[in-house]
Design a protein that fits this description.
This protein has a single domain, classed as Endonuclease/exonuclease/phosphatase (Deoxyribonuclease I, Chain A, 4-Layer Sandwich). The chain contains 7 helices and 12 strands. The longest helix is centred in the middle third of the chain and has 20 residues.
Length: about 260
């Protein structure tokens, strides 16, 4: 059985819906869809957001309205759903949903931005460390993990169009890149880079200076897969032709069982 997953920072679910989100979802037809930066509060959820045509939806919202937030759409009802990961200083921003499925556990995460002035870099790095510790605890308990979302970091020079000019820009700071490296050293694989070691592809483009049309972008969105699960990965993709946000979706296909 092949399980198709997608992850997308929609930069506001209501804005994405106005730009054709439902048509894309019907056409791509994933078994699991993880959304980040939904920017919606529970009392603002309506219609297909609450009851997608082919999925059940789960939402984690920030206490602050119009900010952050993640959602997971699942074709099959998960075995368990966890909103947050037990750290109130991160969970109040609605940054994680963890769902348990047959054969693997899915972590949908919206990693903090370090901000242009670097004022949230420390908070971002603390989130990286705390979530990694939680994921390692889950793995120690026997869970095989897939961690996806907007990591807000380009890991290597190949992952952004202008690495030399951005060495002091949050998203490509040495300490942020090292935080990504630590995840990989802890037993996770960057599925896209494993399957496409030399491919230049981006998942985010600033709205400024016609960056997307010129493909001046960054790869910020990832599927990190427990190395024990990597033999099950059939494909990892970046759907750069999909518009509707300043990010594009990224995809993963897993072959599980018979």
């Amino acid at each position: 059985m092949t399980v198709r997953l997608a992850s997308w920072n929609v930069n506001g679910i209501r804005a994405a819906i106005r730009k054709g989100f439902w048509d894309w979802l019907e056409a791509y037809d994933p078994d699991l869809l993880c959304l980040q930066e939904t920017r919606i509060h529970p009392d603002q959820l309506t219609g297909n957001m609450l009851e997608p045509p082919k999925h059940t939806s789960y939402w984690a919202s920030a206490e602050r309205k119009g900010y952050s937030g993640v959602a997971t759409f699942s074709r099959q009802e998960p075995q368990a759903v966890h909103v947050g990961f037990g750290h109130s200083r991160f969970d109040f921003e609605g940054r994680t949903l963890i769902t348990e499925h047959d054969g693997f556990t899915l972590v949908n995460a919206y990693f903090p931005s370090g901000q242009r002035g670097h004022e949230r870099v420390v908070y971002k790095l603390e989130f990286y460390d705390a979530l990694l510790a939680h994921c390692n605890s889950l793995r120690a308990d026997g869970h095989r993990l897939v961690v996806c979302g907007d990591f807000n970091t380009a890991h290597q020079a190949i992952d952004l169009a202008r690495p030399a000019q951005n060495k002091k820009t949050s998203g490509f700071l040495p300490e942020e890149r090292e935080a990504m490296t630590l995840w990989l050293q802890s037993g996770f694989a960057d599925s896209f880079r494993v399957l496409h070691p030399d491919e230049v592809a981006y998942s985010w483009w600033t709205y400024r200076a016609n960056a997307r049309a010129r493909n001046v972008g960054w790869r910020l969105d990832y599927f990190l897969v427990d190395k024990a699960l990597m033999p099950s990965v059939e494909d990892a993709s970046i759907l750069s032709d999909v518009s509707g946000s300043d990010h594009c979706p990224v995809g993963l296909e897993l072959r599980l069982g018979s």
